Amino acid sequence: MDHAKKVVLAYSGGVDTSVCIPYLKKEWGVEEIIAVAVNLGQGDELEIIRKKALESGASESLVVDVKDSFIKDYAFPAIQANALYEQRYPLGTALARPLIAKVLVEMAAKYNADAIAHGCTGKGNDQVRFDLSIAALKPNLKILTPAREWGMSREEAIAYGEQFGIPAPVKKSSPYSIDKNLLGRSIEAGILEDLTVEPPEEIYEMTKAIVDTPDEPEYIDIGFTSGIPTSLNNKVKTPVQLIEELNRLAGNHGIGRIDMIENRLVGIKSREIYESPAMMVLTQVHQDLESLTLTADVTHYKQKIQETYSQIVYNGLWYSPLKVALDAFIQQTQKRVSGNIKVKLFKGNAIIVGRDSRHSLYTHDLATYSAEDKFDHKAAEGFIYVWGLPTRIWAQH
């Protein structure tokens, strides 16, 4: 097989991506590896990770900070779409992958590399998301997937790495597979694979157990401009600030935990645990603001495409023609989705208790049952006659 000489490697600092470096060199003849760690707010010691790549044999090691773009260009459009995969998961991990792929393609162009490599295995969704995103952005660029092909167990991979001076993990590895970024955490494997077992409290980091949450509710105000969250408690926030602060506020009240059986793209059902406080609250609040500012037909039609949009993102098709077309529709719907929503955070629940928008389609004089009622009740009889005419004709035959 004709493998590349200069490769950009998606690098996380873990066992698999570290072992990829000597493996690509020895087994596949790669001469130069540029390791790229993408900062999505995962909280890792990225300078340590950068140095580890060099110690593992990388020619260069880069950390690229894309937190702002991650929220503004990926998370916020998903909120505008009310995107929840299988109506539950707000796509925190899936949204990160097309951005990482974009960074890898940009670095490949910058360093004149002729291939990109990643450490995804053959069972997960991420391999699809990376491969398809790279293919959409740079169709002729080679993609190397050593972890999908080397057939080593974790123990064998560690032993392989030790031959080349890569130290084994100094502490006992967590039994869980965890992915973390600004939008939340995904946790799988270990005891969670037993579907009868309640997830142990130790797996959570961003959200409190209900028993430990405050005994008094907390009220917050979230402001939106054209479908984008822009303020928290009447203070304008940057995208990253808003997500970070709302993660903390909602997580403190135990909001944002998801325990679901998920249908992976590769055909496997898996149990996934998610923590995503800010995204869960923002999606709920955005959808409520839409109910106030969009007409009925637009609301109902948009609901039909939201599951399609979520599947597209989950299945790695962020840079696809259908996604671009749906984006255009969604953006058109968002022009008047501006206003403020008051939310009560309490014991695992985000309860919407107040709404206000200058684009509100709620008319008090038509909705009220008081003396101020301006609705023409006499018009109802003719409306019902015309509306029910097909039903009456059908019933007579």
Automatic annotation (TrEMBL):
CDD domains: ASS. The keyword Transmembrane helix does not apply. Residues 176-394 form the Arginosuccinate synthase C-terminal domain. L-aspartate binds at residues 121, 125-126. It is an enzyme of class 6 (ligase). L-citrulline binds at residues 89, 125, 129, 177, 186, 262, 274. GO terms for cellular component: cytoplasm. Pathway: Amino-acid biosynthesis; L-arginine biosynthesis; L-arginine from L-ornithine and carbamoyl phosphate: step 2/3. PROSITE patterns: ARGININOSUCCIN_SYN_1, ARGININOSUCCIN_SYN_2. Gene3D superfamilies: Argininosuccinate synthetase, chain A, domain 2, HUPs, Single helix bin. Keywords: Amino-acid biosynthesis, Arginine biosynthesis, ATP-binding, Cytoplasm, Ligase, Nucleotide-binding. InterPro entries: Arginosuc_syn_C (IPR048268), Arginosuc_syn_N (IPR048267), Arginosuc_synth (IPR001518), Arginosuc_synth_CS (IPR018223), Arginosuc_synth_type_1_subfam (IPR023434), AS_cat/multimer_dom_body (IPR024074), Rossmann-like_a/b/a_fold (IPR014729). ATP binds at residues 10-18, 119. Its main location: cytoplasm. NCBIfam families: argG, PRK00509.1. HAMAP family: Arg_succ_synth_type1. Belongs to the argininosuccinate synthase family. Type 1 subfamily. Homotetramer. This is Argininosuccinate synthase. It comes from Richelia intracellularis HH01. The gene is argG.
